[in-house]
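Exercise: predict the fold of this chain.
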Amino acid sequence: MSNWNLTAIAASLVLLGGCQQAAAPVAAAPNITEADANKLVDTMVSTWESKDAAKIKALYAPGVVAFDYGLGPIEADRATFDKAQDLFAAAEIDSEEQVSRKIQILDADTFVVSGVWDGTSKTKPASNGLVRCTDVFQKDAAGAWSIINEHCSAMPKAG
């Protein structure tokens, strides 16, 4: 075969390759809506108000990392985290009135809520007070949402 024939074949292959249609882009998973994120946060707050330690703990991913307003150090192991939730449930907070809330959608599987809540207890008034929290929610492979990171602190006193 001559060089001219080889060149013609190679050029034909290049031209044919250029005629190939590009693969259709893979559709991205739809993002969670702000309305859906707000519903999940409302569920979180009503679960906090339940005073049921087991239900409260179930809101959080197994590997949650947290700063709790009642404890100082980072809670990076589940046993320490669970103890903090037991203490929270024992505070018997009846109501967590929302003062402010901001949702940030990061991607289809992750959003952040930051807010301030005014917690009150009828039986333990010492538990009353403003708390600010930032919670990171993430959807797992099964499609369930849980909190993977939380940072809560008491509001500073004015003045």
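Check your answer against the key: The radius of gyration is 26 Å.
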